[in-house]
Amino acid sequence: MKADVIKLDGGNAGSVELDEALFGLEPRADILHRVVRWQRNNAQAGTHKVKTRSETSYSTKKIYRQKGTGGARHGDRNAPIFRGGGIYKGPTPRSHGHELPKKFRKLGLRHALSAKLKAGELVVIEDATSEGKTAALAKQVKELGWKRALVIDGATVNEGFARAAKNIDGLDILPTIGANVYDILKRDTLVITKAGVEALEARLK
To answer: Which of 17, 54, 69, 187 fits as disulfide partner to 150, beta carbons 3.0 to 4.6 Å?
Structure first.
């Protein structure tokens, strides 16, 4: 399938052939959901921690005598039922990540690209180069109507473009190796350079 290619100034730059295997799939929400869930779980810190009864600092002396008080029998102030005592089965540091086959991850990326194209939210540009001036790039982005956009470049990102984009709210740029389902789906517009298209096809075949 063919897609129009534009320049950053809005001019026409011909067209590019898009691979049906990457951009022509019928998007499946279940696949996208599984890949996004895998990404977010792997990103979760898992550093939450509470103290157990062996870690709280109270005397281990028996609180009061065993019999004759009319109350329940207690021996340790660190018991979970007391205020300030240890927490029973509370969270401890752990990894929330889980495994997902590499083939499935690639499939999810293909479906994300196809979903953006089907929704009319995919733009192909000739290249993502800039002199590093934020004001000039911000003006171009505004004229193109990009509000929350992700730019995917080739193997490397143009240094000037990355420096200018860093100060523009809602505009992010990634090299092809950094392209992922979560970042693609959460943006309103997906912008791919011609070099990015070639690199994605090479990566996902």
So the answer is: 187
Distance of CA 18 to the CA centre of its chain: 25
Length of the chain: 205
**Lookup result for tokens 């005592």:** 85
Q: How many CB atoms lie within 10 A of CB 5?
A: 20
The answer to whether the CB of 2 falls within 8 A of the CB of 15 is: yes
In this prediction, residue 60 carries a pLDDT of: 84
Specify the DSSP element, H or E, that contains 42.
helix 29-43
Judge whether 186 and 194 are in contact, CB under 8 Å: no
53-68 pLDDT, tens digit each: 999 998 888 999 999 9
* Interatomic CA distance for residues 139 and 145, integer angstroms: 10
Give the integer Cα–Cα distance in Å for 139 and 12.
18
| pLDDT number for residue 176 | 94
Which residues are CB-contacts of 102 (< 8 A; sequence separation ≥ 6)? none
Query: Which residues have CB under 8 Å from 83's CB, separation 6+?
Result: none
**Coil, strand or helix at 166:** coil
DSSP conformation letters of 77-125: TTSTTSTTSPPTT------------HHHHHHHHHHHHHHHHHTT-EEEE
Low-confidence ranges of the chain (pLDDT < 70): none
Contact call for residues 111 and 27 (beta carbons, < 8 A): yes
The H-or-E segment that residue 146 falls in is none
